[in-house]
């Protein structure tokens, strides 16, 4: 009898318990002593209903040394039982995998699946969907099947052996309750969860949500234990919908047994919008895109005869449901005598980044005898829902004829004398233009050695920009060379070089937040009072106590610039011994850190009880070092080992530290 797995709906085949698996050399016996024998019937560990893969059954037999007689041997396998009107006979082959000319009811047509011809291992490939081929639904009823292997010589049955195969019931999972809001406001995220019951383990279950009519788009839910699935979805679940929307919540086990639960959400779909300032223009100067400043109007220059001017226009569209809820974006240029121009957000052509909600186009102006009259450009965003209105933005546009032009001037630049690395740099400048301030088009600041560039914007009479803290990351004290540039609408450019000293700050160890803990037997820690002297109570002889120290460390340039944090142990008798503190979440054998990357560095040490430790004194210095080898100011403490800590424990005595399951293996007692 074959034992069954605990997972329902599976079929398990295992070989006879008392028969050993023999190699092909052992299958050949001397003809004088040869006894027909079936050595083993074997198959896959598990057969799953509706599996996409066929399975293989093998029967190993003893072969005579006489090759001619061995060639007369054949093996058949008969399967009988529930769902079969009559036994089905399979022909097993020892042919090395040649094509199977015919197949039984359950036998997979094609190659036999055999590997080595003539080794006494006869093979057949079974259909993947065993339950379907039998016409038996294992989710509704159990089945019992007999597998009888026969070794034949010609038509004579020399020996046979039988195994019993039991198929148990596979019950479908059940959704018990669903937690979901009645409505979903446009732009809101959806949190959904459901309780379920199932006889299957979590790794065999999958849950998802899909909008009816769009089953190909699934939003998966995550298992949260033995009874709960949940998912946190963005507004994409309600995009392209307004009003009541029908959804299906599905839970499926590993045997394609699924349960579906209908859901209805009221979706409030906001219309797309083009914000003020959402239309921008760029001019092409020496191959680079420079922004055109827009005050009351957008100004284009009509080129001289035989020349062209290239501009780029882009429109920023905002929609709570994302860019998939915007059908198209166009510029109405009818006032210029042009047809509507489509804009794209696919990262191709004039567009720089696909899917960022910024739709772009290229505009090439030719020479005109007379500058066109002022025009009105209209940006239009068409929503996906036909019931919603177009989002529009109007931009007055003026055309300026090409004329002899003087370059703009840089009047004054405002920069701090020094700046700490990691700080925000605020730069301001005053520009002018001999032909009129209205001709100024764009301004920028660029770091010379990296090429990083930021554009300045108009703020009253000045142009300004904020440069983020990544400006001087991972760089020692040094001088930065910048270029300030300004251009006008006629593509004239003026630049000026400036320098700025960047000082790299030292790491900081937060002395006020240095905490020592004594770890209890249950792994929790009680804070130890921290003053200039810290007392560690010596455990009984033969016992040991774990102590932990935690120290927040920061660096103005960011945590990645901290190379290491150590405490230096200086015993009374002399010497200096450094030990590491960690911010790794306890990922190595010497660390008791709680959370990786939180800036709190941790050290653990074990004090082993010895009488000779009484009144030992150590000087400890906690020091952080950055990647340039510069050290923080030290945090110094005296550590004294005593039989009894003087005074009372700190107020509260709350357990605020939990040691990981494993204890540090390195003794720090002395």
Tell me the distance between the termini: 64 Å
Q: State which percent range the strand residues make up.
A: over 45%
Low-confidence stretches: 1-26, 137-141, 651-656, 662-670
Provide the spatial order of strands within the biggest beta sheet: 14-16-19-18-17-20-21-15
Number of helix segments? 3
User: Would you tell me the overall average pLDDT?
Assistant: 80
Structural class computed from helices and strand pairing: mainly beta
Taking all Cα atoms into account, the compactness measure Rg is 40 Å
Identify the overall geometry: flat
What is the strand tally?
Answer: 49
Comma- or semicolon-separated keywords:
mainly beta; flat; 670 residues
Walk me through the structure.
- The chain is mostly beta strands and 670 residues long.
- The chain contains three helices and 49 strands.
- The two termini are 64 Å apart.
- 28% of the residues are buried.
Annotate the secondary structure layout.
Elements: E1 10-11, H1 24-27, E2 28-29, E3 38-42, E4 47-48, E5 55-61, E6 63-64, H2 67-71, E7 73-81, E8 88-92, E9 99-100, E10 110-111, E11 121-126, H3 130-134, E12 143-153, E13 156-167, E14 174-179, E15 183-185, E16 190-197, E17 206-211, E18 219-223, E19 228-233, E20 243-252, E21 258-268, E22 279-285, E23 288-291, E24 298-302, E25 309-316, E26 326-332, E27 341-343, E28 358-365, E29 375-383, E30 391-401, E31 409-414, E32 418-420, E33 425-432, E34 440-447, E35 453-459, E36 462-467, E37 478-488, E38 493-503, E39 508-509, E40 515-519, E41 524-528, E42 533-537, E43 544-554, E44 562-571, E45 577-581, E46 600-608, E47 617-626, E48 635-642, E49 657-658
Parallel strand pairs: 2-6, 15-21, 24-30, 32-38, 42-48
Antiparallel strand pairs: 1-4, 3-5, 5-11, 7-8, 7-12, 9-10, 12-13, 14-16, 16-19, 17-18, 17-20, 18-19, 20-21, 22-23, 22-25, 25-28, 26-27, 26-29, 29-30, 31-33, 33-36, 34-35, 34-37, 35-36, 37-38, 39-43, 40-41, 40-43, 41-49, 43-46, 44-45, 44-47, 47-48
């Amino acid at each position: 009898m074959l034992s069954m797995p605990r997972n329902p709906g599976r079929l398990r085949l295992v070989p006879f318990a008392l028969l050993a698996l023999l190699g092909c050399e052992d299958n050949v016996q001397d003809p004088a002593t040869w006894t027909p024998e079936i050595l083993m019937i074997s198959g896959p560990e598990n057969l799953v209903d509706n599996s996409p893969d066929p399975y293989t059954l093998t029967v190993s037999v003893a072969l005579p040394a006489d090759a001619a007689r061995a060639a007369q041997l054949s093996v058949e396998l008969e399967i009988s039982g529930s769902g079969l009107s009559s036994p089905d006979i399979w022909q097993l082959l020892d042919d090395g995998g040649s094509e199977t000319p015919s197949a039984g009811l359950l036998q997979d047509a094609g190659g036999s699946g055999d590997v080595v011809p003539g080794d006494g291992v006869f093979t057949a490939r079974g259909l993947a969907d065993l339950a379907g081929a039998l016409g038996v639904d294992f989710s509704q009823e159990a089945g019992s099947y007999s597998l009888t292997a026969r070794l034949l010589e010609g038509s004579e049955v020399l020996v046979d052996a039988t195994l019993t195969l039991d198929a148990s019931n596979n019950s479908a999972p059940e959704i018990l309750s669903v937690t979901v809001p009645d409505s979903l406001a446009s732009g809101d995220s959806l949190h959904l969860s459901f309780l379920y019951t199932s006889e299957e383990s979590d790794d065999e279950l999958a849950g998802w949500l899909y909008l009816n009519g769009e089953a190909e788009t699934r939003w998966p839910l995550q298992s949260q234990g033995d009874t709960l699935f949940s998912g946190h979805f963005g507004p994409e679940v309600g995009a392209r919908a307004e009003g009541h929307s029908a959804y299906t919540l599905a839970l499926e086990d590993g045997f394609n047994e699924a349960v579906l639960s209908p859901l209805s959400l009221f979706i409030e779909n906001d219309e797309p919008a083009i914000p003020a300032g959402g239309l921008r223009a760029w001019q092409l100067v020496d191959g680079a895109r420079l922004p055109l400043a827009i005050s009351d109007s957008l100004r284009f220059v009509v080129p001289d005869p035989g020349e062209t001017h290239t501009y780029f226009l882009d429109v920023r569209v905002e929609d709570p449901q994302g860019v998939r809820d915007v059908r198209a974006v166009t510029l109405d240029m009818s006032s210029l005598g042009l047809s509507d121009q489509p804009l794209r957000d696919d990262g191709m052509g004039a567009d720089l980044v696909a899917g960022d909600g910024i739709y772009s186009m290229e505009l090439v102006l030719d020479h005109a005898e007379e500058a066109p009259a002022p025009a009105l450009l209209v940006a239009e965003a068409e929503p996906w829902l036909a019931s919603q209105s177009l989002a529009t933005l109007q931009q007055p546009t003026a055309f300026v004829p090409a004329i002899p032009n003087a370059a703009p001037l840089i009047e004054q630049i405002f920069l701090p004398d020094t700046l700490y690395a990691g700080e925000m740099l605020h730069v301001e400048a005053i520009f002018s233009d001999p032909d009129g301030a209205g001709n100024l088009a764009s301004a920028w600041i660029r770091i010379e050695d990296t090429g990083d560039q930021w554009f300045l914007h108009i703020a009253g009479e000045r142009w300004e920009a904020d440069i983020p803290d990544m400006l001087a990351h991972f760089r020692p004290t040094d001088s930065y060379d910048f270029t300030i540039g300004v251009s006008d609408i006629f593509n004239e450019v003026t630049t000026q070089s400036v320098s700025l000293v960047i000082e790299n700050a030292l790491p900081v160890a937060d002395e006020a937040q240095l905490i020592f803990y004594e770890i209890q037997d249950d792994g929790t820690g009680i804070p130890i009072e921290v003053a200039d002297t810290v007392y560690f109570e010596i455990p009984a002889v033969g016992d040991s106590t774990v102590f932990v120290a935690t120290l927040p460390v920061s660096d103005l340039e960011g945590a990645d610039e901290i190379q290491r944090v150590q405490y230096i142990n200086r015993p009374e008798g002399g010497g200096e011994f450094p030990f590491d503190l960690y911010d790794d979440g306890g990922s190595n054998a010497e660390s008791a850190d709680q959370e990786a990357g939180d800036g709190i560095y941790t050290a653990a040490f074990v004090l082993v009880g010895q009488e000779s430790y009484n009144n030992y004194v150590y000087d400890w210095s906690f020091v952080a070092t950055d990647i340039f080898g510069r050290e923080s100011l030290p945090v110094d403490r005296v550590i004294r080992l005593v039989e009894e800590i003087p005074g009372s424990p700190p107020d509260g005595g709350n357990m605020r530290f939990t040691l990981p399951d494993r204890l540090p293996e390195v003794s720090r007692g002395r």
